[in-house]
Amino acid sequence: MGQTLHCTGNREELARDILEVARIYRRSDIRELENRMKTLKDDFLKLGVSLLINHQSNEDIRNAMEREMVIRIMNDNFSQNVLKTVARLTPSFGLAGTVISLIKMFKGMQAIDQIAPLMAVAMMSTFYGVIISNLFMLPLCAKLKERAILSESLMHFTIEGVEAINNMEHPLRIEERITGYSNTWDMCLSGMSSTLAATKSANRV
User: What is the rounded (10 degree) CA torsion for 36, 37, 40, 45?
Assistant: First the structure.
């Protein structure tokens, strides 16, 4: 829920920036547009405004922005894969630590009554491995996946807005266009949140 509200806030701020850029672009005030670009927080929108200033065609704008989007998605996927790998391997490392501890325990054991405390110490390695994987790595990976999906939606949102600006559409028309896109995304986001919640519950089980 918190992540959804955060995304909504980002999207509303992004929509305001897009509409302001549209008003400046319709006035053909390139100097003001350059100054406004410097104050934008969203680097992806900055790329779009830069392409507008350079008078690129719609096709060139979409191609350039989609290339940048693909690069960002690949980086997000790489981070997710790293976390997934760590989550899968952590219990194995914990088990390996337990086996090594057991080998040392039996090798140096001199009395039967020493088994219980030494066994407890040996099992801690597996316990920590499972805890780190299930309570830290898997939830972190799910959160990263959710943020990647939200980021991708904002990039699509930005491309639609920049193309509309380049077509010299009226800001009110652009607002209707991106509002419709936002409503569609809200429906998708609601379904995505339910799916992620179900996945997290399944992982805990």
Answer: 130
Distance in angstroms (rounded) separating the CA atoms of residues 17 and 26: 14
Determine the straight-line distance between the first and last CA of the chain, rounded to whole angstroms. Answer: 22
- Phi and psi (nearest 5°) for 29? -95, 85
Residue 125: how many CB atoms within 10 A of its CB?
Answer: 18
Tabulate helix, strand, coil % of the chain (nearest 5).
90, 0, 10
Residue 187's pLDDT is 60
CA 55 from centroid of its chain's CA atoms: 31
User: What are the 10-residue block averages of pLDDT along the chain, 205 residues in total?
Assistant: 50 90 91 92 94 94 95 93 92 89 76 72 87 91 89 90 92 82 60 51 49
Q: How far is CA 35 from each of CA 15, 38, 115, 145, rounded to the nearest angstrom?
A: 18, 5, 73, 34
Q: Which residues contact 186 (CB under 8 A, 6 or more apart)?
A: none
| Residue 55 φ then ψ, to 5° | 60, 45
